[in-house]
Design brief:
By secondary structure, the chain is mainly α. It contains 16 helices and no strands. Helices cover 63% and strands 0% of the residues. The protein is globular and about 60 Å long.
Length: 423
């Protein structure tokens, strides 16, 4: 890893770990736009796998054979499933960042307001289009019955014994369990030392779960992905407090664990092999390290920030909506050809993601966040119900906060350098 930049030298060091709840990354660092770009890179890899690297023979129809039409693209895209692992690695970084300085309630509100509105919208769109398809006498690629739809709206259909309406939503259930573990850490109190202890303990317990072949421990401790999340947490601690031997040990231990258990995932992808998969994923780790504590952290390209905002909706729609749309293009305009049709389908998926980001995330998501935040303050709610409005009352002058204290709600504000994965 390259030597720390000048900005990194002014980051607070672990020696002051007892004061870290009031210590923040310097304002000059700004938003980590490169991390936003890496999120879109991971989503693009997953989309490439679904569209171009799928091992399903003649996935796009009898007239189209991907290995023959684009053998090199097909072979490279066959490793795009690693984008899911990259997402979990990034999630460890940004969720630790998002947790810092927040209460468990504030963290829960931010997750709910970010994830659910877009997810609900996509599920309902998939069900609506699937219903229209069935009524037109054709087969729907997604379940459209009411029971399955209701179960999917909870975002946890798998534990309820139901199929996923949105195929990629299985990763959201993995993320939700990671959020639960981070919520427990927040209840205990998130500090530098506790975050490190949490990382080591998680890896040890996950290893024990694998040794015991315990399904229960695997479900709670996410033994397949624990190393990715812990590595991301360690990289965020380096970003915030600067690298040191203990953090490098945590990163090394977590990454050795990750690459070892990666073989289980490789085994489910017959066209992949472990050495290449490990190399590709390690290269992504290096990019995230450079984006968090290296020279890439200085990038402030607006395009990367926009890409980060579109990542989640694009990830949700590209498979369950984008693939049927692409098949429709191939059927309607066969002369266009396979690769141009795929490119057009991906473009339309991205445009749909932009519309969902604007109409749902930026509007409904903010509205839900505001109401949930207000609902967490019962005194405020009770006062609103019992106190009649006073007409012509001039607004109170703002009262400055005492030095060293924060005003109510400060925990919801963006910290300098916070990429706000879910905000």
């Amino acid at each position: 890893m390259p030597a720390p930049t000048k900005a990194a030298h002014i980051l607070p060091r672990p020696a002051r770990a007892d004061k870290q709840r009031t210590t923040h990354v310097p304002a000059g660092v700004g938003r980590l736009a490169a991390v936003d770009g890496l999120r879109m890179l991971a989503a693009t890899a997953v989309a490439a796998y679904h569209y171009l690297g799928t091992p399903t023979p003649r996935f796009w129809g009898e007239a189209y054979d991907l290995p023959q039409a684009a053998p090199l693209i097909h072979a490279v895209s066959g490793y795009g499933w690693l984008g899911v692992e990259a997402f979990f690695l990034i999630s460890g970084f940004v969720i630790c960042m998002s947790c810092w300085g927040r209460t468990p309630a504030q963290f829960a509100v931010s997750r709910i307001a970010r994830l659910f509105p877009l997810y609900w919208a996509v599920v309902l769109i998939i069900v609506a289009t699937g219903t229209v398809t069935v009524l037109a006498g054709q087969r729907s690629g997604a379940p459209t019955d009411l029971r399955t739809t209701l179960g999917n709206l909870t975002m946890i259909p798998s534990p309820l014994g139901l199929d996923f309406t949105a195929g990629v939503a299985w990763t959201l259930w993995v993320e939700a369990r990671f959020y639960l573990l981070m919520g427990v850490l927040l209840l205990i109190g998130l500090t530098y030392r506790r975050a490190i202890a949490f990382g080591f303990l998680w890896l040890v317990l996950a290893s024990i779960g694998r040794e015991l072949h315990s399904t229960v421990l695997d479900e709670f401790l996410l033994s397949q992905y624990a190393g990715l999340f812990v590595t991301g947490i360690a990289l965020y601690l380096m970003h915030r407090f600067g690298p040191n031997l203990l953090l490098w040990l945590l990163t090394g231990f977590a990454w050795c664990y990750t690459l070892t258990v990666l073989n289980d995932r490789v085994a489910t992808h017959t066209n992949s092999n472990w050495p290449i998969s490990a190399t590709v994923l390690t290269a992504f780790l290096v990019l995230l390290a450079l984006a968090g504590s290296g020279p890439l952290r200085l990038l402030q390209w607006r395009t990367l920030i926009t890409a980060g905002a579109l990542t989640y909706p694009f990830y949700l729609v590209h498979q369950s909506l984008g693939i049927p749309l692409t098949r429709g293009i191939l059927k309607t305009l066969p002369s266009l050809g396979l690769l141009p049709s795929i490119g057009l389908g991906l473009l339309l998926s991205l445009l749909l993601a932009a519309a969902l980001n604007h109409l749902v995330d930026q509007k409904l998501g903010r509205l839900l966040r505001r109401h949930l935040t207000a609902a967490l303050d019962p005194n405020h709610t009770e006062q609103d119900r019992s106190t009649p409005p006073i007409a012509h009352c001039p607004p109170d002058k703002p009262t400055p906060s005492p030095p060293g204290r924060s005003r109510p709600g400060d925990g919801e504000r963006h910290q300098p350098g916070d990429v706000r994965w879910g905000e």
